[in-house]
Write a structure and sequence with these properties.
31% of the residues lie in helices and 23% in strands. With 566 residues, the protein is an alpha/beta fold. Helix 9 (231-245) crosses helix 10. It has an eight-stranded mixed sheet with strand order 7-6-5-3-4-8-9-18, with helices on both faces. The chain contains 17 helices and 26 strands.
Length: 566
Amino acid sequence: MTLAPEVSTPWSKSYPPDIDWHTQVSDEPMPAVLDRQAAADGDRSCINFLGRLSSYRDIATLSDRMAKGLQDLGVGKGDRVGLFLPNTPYAVIAFYGALKAGAIVVNFNPLYADEEVRKQIDDSGVKIMITLDLKLMLPKLQRMLGRPPLEKIVVCSMSAALPFPKAQLFKVFKYSEIASAKDDDRLVSYEAVTENDGNYRRYEIDSRKDIAVLQYTGGTTGVPKGAMLTHANIAINARQVSMWDGEPGEDQPRVLGVLPLFHVFAMTVVMNAAVVAGAEMILLPRFDVITTLKTIQKTKPTQFPGVPTLFNAIDQEPTAEKYDLSSIEICISGGAPLPVKVKQAFEGRTGCKVVEGYGLSESSPVAACNPVEGVNKEGSIGLPLPQTYLEIRGLDDPDQLMPIGESGEVCISGPQVMAGYWDRPDETARTVRNGRLHTGDIGYMDEDGFTFIIDRLKDMILCSGYNVYPRTIEEAVYRHPAVAEVTVVGIPDDYRGEAPKAFIRLKEDQILEADELKAFLKDKISPIEMPQEIEFRDELPKTMIGKLSKKELVAEEQEKRTEAAS
């Protein structure tokens, strides 16, 4: 949806003065952006991986060679190439190389179980997978060979990606973690694929129509399906995020990449937005709080995209005060609602600005964010990004546009909204209607154009006919000083139909009883919102990017009640 410059929107008066919402954002494909950065300043650092630096020229050249090598393996326009990689330089090279080869990138979580991997390979029709020579990853894919559609696996050496002397130490002390890639001609080494002149066959790309990425998501129904993101979707969203971050100063921006690049949030906010800005990506293969703190102190990132549990982990780390975190200027928080307490604690510790954003895989993913400069409303997802339109539509009547302050379903229109779901036209028709992406999130917009998410439509608890939103309860529980993490789900209740149950992890060395917590909550939530049950746990389930997950807890509760009834 494109509005004329004279058309006013609810957020017009609140928009950052240095950003024009009506700006027409370029849809030039991301590989062209990478090549342009390499041509303009090829010696500039592109990736810092555990101390090993790769320049923009290095990454552009290697992505050319990857493209040529993939084409030599039979990859053509529209073929699917799967990335089964943690955060390493290979992840960036393979992503851009596959796009240059004309392929569609399919991101996989390396921690997936065999069945999850198999289903995604079958559904997407992946022809070639790219992974590391680690026992955690390679054998999982080897078991998929011998049945269509998977034909070959490109195997990257973990030790070869490391700087000296870490490479040698890895070979010695992590030898037991290295998987054998010998005696199988269906396994091709990364070196064999990239040992060429890089003169790959160019395809004409229609940015608005050609698919660049299949990003698998549970979407609004919970069934995994591939969101088809076009070249324009991902390129425009990277530029929108880069614009929101503001113009870089004289020094090169440095983005800390702890979030996994196979997740759409990091793919856009860490990798692609960094390439747009000519920033350095500081990549860590996984999140460990002490390693992250040491890396921040040593490499001095200026930007730190994360999820609330990541910021919360640093807030609660007792040794965090020993580390200098003052280089961080901007943190975009996404993936889950950002508790106000977590935001305030992290800002107090670092002196940076933490801004909550919002999006879905289906919107590439970022649709809205609080301004980096100017008004920042706590508990809000902020304002829509340039050329993005947010609406609140009726829950019972999606044609009804809800008035300011009244809740309904959050809908998104904009150039970053997906082309649809892969091979699922019915799901696409239900989710994207009249050009609007129906998110399944419940929220409202205030008079300044800031949107507040109340909860997920599917997470809403129906108690005696009343709508109870878990996030409201979670925010209240977080206010207790002993609480580290909380997740609230609905459980069956004979009297009310459903009732809230809170699962809580306490801070280290803290003690809290359920009755004590209920007394604390008495003046903070209504009686119908009061958790009927409270369960304390040492750990709470999390998703692959570290956000708290409800589905495992819901499944546990269902199984518990099924067993009790039998």
